[in-house]
Amino acid sequence: MDEQASYDAIGEYYEKFSNTVAQRQSELQDILNMVGDIRGKSVLDLACGYGYFGRELHRRGAAKVVGIDISEKMIELAKAKSKLYGDDIEFHVQNVCEMQLEEKFDIIVAAFLFHYAQSTEELEMMFQAVANHLKPTGKLIAYMASPDYQLKNGNCDNYGFTILSEEPWLNGFRHQAEFLTTPPSPFTFYRWSRGSYENAIKKAGFQHITWQKPTVLENDLARYPAGFWDIYLQNCIHTGLVCQF
After folding, report:
1. How far apart are CA 173 and CA 189, in angstroms?
2. Is 83 exposed, middle or buried (0-12, 13-18, 19+ CB in 10 A)?
3. What is the pTM of this model?
């Protein structure tokens, strides 16, 4: 995975960017809804960045949170945040495909992880790594590039980034894009077919799959002008996903 270099370079830019995009609280609520009651449960937060989603679950009563990210810079930021807030979240620099932790978790959150898989083989490795670290009664909550998105039906400028290109890639698409930071921060992501996702999910042993369309909070709808959310609601680049054994 080559996103390590790009996220190391973005560093603090990414934190500022992601905290200010219009959909941030709506994304959080979607993830919280998919997670359900978190009280007393253990959480593994994959592609954790500076720890945003794991920290929100910690605040809501998770008994333990461990964050994993391939970017050393992001893990530095995450540890600094924990020191600032005085929480006990653990953070480790690891490639998800190669991670070998000594425990299994009740909940695994993978927000903006799977669309960095550069092949279906890597996608399968990611889902298998998740399955290896999830309790039999556990649940994977993912948020990633949607198989249904079509660039011709609208870009993402209102939502913090611009997709610059879309090209066929194996049995999916590769996209070049830029976070609308100052200066812009380039990144590459991959959009796999629903069949490719579901094949990787089932290969990893998951039996139950639920796709979740993103929603927008009422107060977010009200804060922006008419039409602002149209692409997000009708042609959203992201989708939620819940997987269970």
Report:
1. 9
2. exposed
3. 0.92
